[in-house]
Design goal:
Blueprint lengths: L1 E2 L4 H18 L11 E4 L7 H7 L2 E4 L1 H9 L6 H4 L4
Parallel strand pairs: 1-2, 2-3
């Protein structure tokens, strides 16, 4: 799971690095394939459709998305947005 992907190019580069590692480190005769995924943690991240076409999996980092979008942390939420 590659965190904090901000662009398709970054996703492509990180995926290539992850997929190259088993080839460099595996023993002769072993076949090791990795599935690469990401967590959507930034509002500017590629769309889920763009990610789904290129990676094995993705998930949403809702805490990070909320903090970045609204500019608040979970510690500040009760003082910034009192319950109604």
């Amino acid at each position: 799971m590659v965190p904090l992907i901000g662009s398709i190019e970054e996703m492509r580069n990180q995926s290539a690095i992850v997929k190259e590692m088993p080839r460099k480190s595996s023993r002769r005769g072993r076949d090791c394939r990795l599935h690469v995924g990401t967590m959507i943690e930034l509002p500017r991240a590629p769309s889920r459709d763009q990610i789904a076409e290129r990676l094995s999996s993705f998930s949403f980092g809702t805490n990070d998305l909320t903090q970045t979008t609204f500019g608040i942390s979970r510690d500040d939420i009760n003082t910034s947005c009192p319950p109604t």
